[in-house]
């Protein structure tokens, strides 16, 4: 699966908050301000993501340490998930993907986000 970043909200990236909120272009204007807006590349081959799978932001590779139960449904319907770059605890968000390393990726307009199954 792949998507392309088409817009980065003014308040979407904050190094103090190690997360990225993704939405497709149906997001409301207030959500667009705090989100990274992306569009899936067609044709789309959906598959279940799991712990250990990888997500790449261009060539920056991250490993999924936890994926919430609602992520795939939300990605398919409104292009939404929150990618969190810190250790998850007992209060995991079921709409989120937790990734390592715990460093925000560099994202620009046109960044390709690639979802890959572990080898």
Automatic annotation (TrEMBL):
One of its GO terms (molecular function) is protein-N(PI)-phosphohistidine-sugar phosphotransferase activity. Keywords: Transferase. GO terms for cellular component: cytoplasm. It comes from the Bacteria. One of its GO terms (biological process) is phosphoenolpyruvate-dependent sugar phosphotransferase system. The modification Phosphohistidine is found at residue 38. Gene3D superfamilies: Phosphotransferase system, glucitol/sorbitol-specific IIA component. Signal peptide: none annotated. Transmembrane segments: none annotated. PANTHER family: PTS SYSTEM GLUCITOL/SORBITOL-SPECIFIC EIIA COMPONENT, PTS SYSTEM GLUCITOL_SORBITOL-SPECIFIC EIIA COMPONENT. This is Phosphotransferase system glucitol/sorbitol-specific iia component.
